[in-house]
Design goal:
This protein is α+β, with helices and mostly antiparallel strands. The protein is 21% helix and 22% strand. The protein has 2 domains: 73 residues, SH3 type barrels; 76 residues. The chain has a 5-stranded antiparallel beta sheet with strand order 4-3-2-1-5, with no helix packed on it. β3 and β4 form a beta hairpin. It is elongated. It starts with 10 loop residues before the first strand and ends in a 6-residue tail after the last strand.
Length: 182
């Protein structure tokens, strides 16, 4: 759709969270786009661009029902039509189950801990990555694995603080914290 075709108070089919649902445009958002209400769930959503809108929905068109529990509510009330059609349940992919710690491939941080434990001295990320790849502690097809490792170490230090496995000694140099040396 085009931006000039969107009217306040209008009903449109829109893509929201990977699903096409019916929304009612409530107001323009000061940051661009529109504030709307998902008519199936009643939740407020923000439509950032007219490209998310698929087209206008006529008032007589029945609402799509996302779940089985909500299906009976579609035909309740004095204005309910006995032969109103309810959209079938949408089937999606099953979520992947997380692998247990023993089943996972070793990551960059685990490999870095192992390399730093073996060398016992501060190292920069380029040298840590070279050692980890050479000894087979870690595998990657990335173009800048040293950048990936550096970012991961910095994130861990920022998130865990004194409980992090690493600490920075010099510019670009890291060593194991006293707790991780054990």
């Amino acid at each position: 759709m085009k931006k000039h075709e969107v009217k306040l108070g209008g009903r449109y089919s829109a893509k929201v969270s990977d699903k096409v649902v019916v929304v009612r445009i409530d107001a323009e958002n000061p940051h661009g786009g529109w504030d709307a209400t998902n008519e199936a769930t009643g939740k407020r959503v923000r439509i950032k661009s007219a490209q998310r809108l698929r087209g206008a929905v006529h008032k007589s068109r029945p609402l799509a029902v996302a779940t089985k529990e909500a299906a009976p509510a579609a035909d309740v009330g004095p204005t309910a039509k006995p032969d109103a059609k309810v959209a079938p349940e949408v089937k999606g992919k099953k979520p992947k189950t997380a692998k247990r710690k023993g089943e996972r491939k070793p990551g960059a941080l685990d490999a870095a801990v192992r390399v730093l434990r073996e060398t016992g001295k501060p190292m920069n990320c380029t040298d840590i990555v070279k050692e980890a790849l050479a000894k087979g502690y870690w595998q990657t097809k990335g173009k800048t694995p040293h950048g990936t490792l550096y970012a991961a170490i910095i994130r861990e230090i920022a998130a865990k603080g004194k409980e992090a496995r690493f600490h920075k000694t010099d510019r670009g140099q890291f060593e194991l914290s006293t707790a991780a040396r054990k």
